[in-house]
Amino acid sequence: MNLKPGIAWIIGGGSGIGAAVARELAGRGWQVAISGRRLQRLEEVSASHSGIHAYPLDITDANAAAATVAAIAADFGRIDLLLYGAVAATGTPPGSYDAARFAAAFDVNVMGLVRLLDPVITQMSRQPTGGQIAVISSLAGYVGLPRGGAYAATKSALITLCQTMRVELEPKRIIVRLITPGFVKSELTARNRYRMPMLMETEDAAWRIVDGLVRSTRFEIAFPWPMVFVMKAARLLPYRLFFWLSALTLRAR
Ligand SMILES: NC(=O)c1ccc[n+]([C@@H]2O[C@H](COP(=O)([O-])OP(=O)(O)OC[C@H]3O[C@@H](n4cnc5c(N)ncnc54)[C@H](OP(=O)(O)O)[C@@H]3O)[C@@H](O)[C@H]2O)c1
């Protein structure tokens, strides 16, 4: 299987991984709509390639989200690939569970995707070739580690939601994909003050994502492999051992 170039829409396309994926897709012949709140960032990315087009959007606004789906479908005739990569960088220190911070993280990271689903599914269901919905979660969503806070909780929610959607949307010819990266250079990670093992270049991550999306329809695109292995193994540990190791990571930083 090799997905032909079509129409992609990236939420979070004005920076980091989303912007790099936009450039990678455009370089492979796709028309790419990019969304985010900061118009200037969107314009900088769209200026880098004639195949990239800015559609400013705050994903917390449901009406604006539906209107943008309609605008992109009207401009390009269809949406073949939705890539959801918006993230609210709301830090939650260990031992603090501030409700407003959790709500802000869930509002963008999870509900932002949910606001798009009905209009995008309606649009893709009309298309003879269906479509793909790809969601950027994280290896941080595999297990609950100290300092995971609201961020990891939202990423876990995305994993289970995608697992549900994969089977439910298959009869509509919509293929759901889950993307679980380790650490990647971006605005998000630039804020981190701790050591990030195997921190990857943004373009390297974007290449892996695009290659995974166009070369196969497998559910998960996860990288880098050594971290994927460790995190998947952590899910299999008995809880006594898991929590003992987990407590070591709290003391390590
Ligand atoms: N970097 C990593 O190590 C890493 C690892 C695993 C997973 N990820 C995931 O990869 C995705 C991309 O993150 P990144 O690392 O590339 O960080 P990033 O550069 O900060 O990108 C996040 C994007 O989300 C957009 N966004 C935030 N709030 C929004 C809103 N209300 N409406 C619309 N867009 C909004 C931002 O644009 P505006 O501010 O202009 O709205 C920004 O372009 C995220 O889902 C992140 O969790 C990243």
UniProtKB/TrEMBL annotation:
Keywords: NADP, Oxidoreductase
A Pfam family assignment: adh_short
GO molecular function: oxidoreductase activity
A GO CC term attached to the entry: cytosol
Keyword NADP: yes
Keyword Lipoprotein: no
Family label: Belongs to the short-chain dehydrogenases/reductases (SDR) family.
Entry protein name: SDR family NAD(P)-dependent oxidoreductase
Lineage of source species: Bacteria, Pseudomonadati, Pseudomonadota, Alphaproteobacteria, Hyphomicrobiales
